[in-house]
Amino acid sequence: xTRFYGIDExxxxxxxxxxxxxxxxxxxxxxxxxxxxxxxxxxxxxSERGEGEAPAGPPGxxxxxxxxxxxxxxxxxxLRMQGLIDQMQAGVTRLVEREVTLREIETxxxxxxxxxxxxxxxxxxxxxxxxxxxxxxxxxxFGGRQRLVDLT
Length: 152
Known about the structure:
Blueprint lengths: L6 H38 L23 H30 L3 E4 L4 E8 L2 E7 L8 E4 L8 E2 L5
Antiparallel strand pairs: 1-2, 2-3, 3-4, 4-5
Helix pairs in contact: 1-2
C-alpha cells in the first residue's frame, strides 16, 4: 500500500467507486448468463466435439451435426462475453488506479487502505451501505469488521 485514505477522502470517493462496482456487478451477471446460454446451446445442438470440427464421414451424413446458425449465435455470444470481460478489466483497473482493493464483485465489497494510530488498516465498505462505517485489520477479512467509532 502506498496511498492511505482518510475517512472523509474515502467517503468522497464512494460515488465514483459505487458506479464502478454497480457496473462490475451487472457485467458479471450478464457474463454468467451468456456463459450459461452458450453451454446450454452447445449441449442442445451436440456441439461438444468442438466448434468447426467436422464430423467423420461424408458431408451431410451426420444427423447430429451442429446447426450452423446456432454455432454462429454462440460465436456472437462469445464475442459479447469477451467485450464484457474487457469492460470488467477496465473497471477493475479504475479501482486499482484509485488504490482501492476489490474483494468481491457480487456484493461490491471493497477496502480502502488507511492509517489509524500509526498502523495500517482497511476501511471497509460494500454496496448498499451509506458512508464508510467499518474497518478491519490487514489480516482480518469481512468477518473481522469493526465499527469506526471503536477504532483505537
